[in-house]
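step=encode ok
step=design start
structure_in=
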């Protein structure tokens, strides 16, 4: 619970900073354009967080939004902010990979800025497809491992989690005469793992689930600091051209920093393509 609280508070701080980023706000608006939801529709937000980035905008347009998130701190913040705005959202503490809803109950399902925290994207897609009505739209974004800066970030992330990196840090502290207990203490489980994907990996999954899909590519560069350099490596600060938001062209469908997959479930119900059977005895939305 302490880890959940710590991570939830950290995410709230990050989300507030993101909301002030013009580039991030633009991306969120573009993402919502691909969520096929009309007033009166029932829509599921998988990984709703504090709700401010996407869910609140849909509710204000008359869409019935239900949200799931694994972190109770984020859900409490979402409920509090929604109440402050007199917005109604049905939130549930749940795992995207094990959704507590009946089959085919939502007109649209989406997941914004969440897929790269999922250890098993296959299971998550199976669940999101399961609860989606035939003819409905499933929209989600991924971090593209083919993007050079994303690839560098991922390599840095993996290096920092390696035993070799830990050994080097321990050796450095011992040499400096500093304590190493903090470095060697068990970290416990964390939801902040990082799982980027390549376009063919996602395409293969969607084809397996018999989902028709289109890909939208975004960003030549992300307005983020480079690993090891901090803000000194944030090239987007120095050039409006680099920071410009390029979207939806043939090149970015393969090399964009983020990819949005817009999927349509076939109108005729089909047997689930998942390799493992999914439970149908679930609560209604």
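sequence_out=
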């Amino acid at each position: 619970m302490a880890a959940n609280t710590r991570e939830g508070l950290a995410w709230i701080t990050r989300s507030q900073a993101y909301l002030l980023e013009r580039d991030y706000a633009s991306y969120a608006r573009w993402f919502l354009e691909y969520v096929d939801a009309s007033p009166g529709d029932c829509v599921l937000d998988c990984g709703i967080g504090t709700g401010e980035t996407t869910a609140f905008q849909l509710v204000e347009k008359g869409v019935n939004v239900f949200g799931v998130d694994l972190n109770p701190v984020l859900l409490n913040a979402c409920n509090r902010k929604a109440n402050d705005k007199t917005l109604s959202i049905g939130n549930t503490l749940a795992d995207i990979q094990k959704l507590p809803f009946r089959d085919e109950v939502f007109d649209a399902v989406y997941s914004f800025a969440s897929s790269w925290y999922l250890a098993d994207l296959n299971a998550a897609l199976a669940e999101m497809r399961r609860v989606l009505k035939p003819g409905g739209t499933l929209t989600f974004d991924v971090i593209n491992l083919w993007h050079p800066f994303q690839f560098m970030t991922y390599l840095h992330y993996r290096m920092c989690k390696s035993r070799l990196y830990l050994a080097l840090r321990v050796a450095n502290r011992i040499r400096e005469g500093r304590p190493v207990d903090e470095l060697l203490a068990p970290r416990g489980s964390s939801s902040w793992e990082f799982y980027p994907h390549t376009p063919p990996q996602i395409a293969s999954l969607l084809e397996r689930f018999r989902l028709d899909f289109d890909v939208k590519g975004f960003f030549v560069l992300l307005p983020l600091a480079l690993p090891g350099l901090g803000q000194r490596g944030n090239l987007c600060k120095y050039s409006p051209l680099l920071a410009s938001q390029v979207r939806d062209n043939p090149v970015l469908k393969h090399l964009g920093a983020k990819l949005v997959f817009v999927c349509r479930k076939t109108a005729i119900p089909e047997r689930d393509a998942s390799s493992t059977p999914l439970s149908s005895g679930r609560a209604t939305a």
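step=design ok
step=annotate ok -> The CA atoms of residues 50 and 175 lie 44 Å apart.
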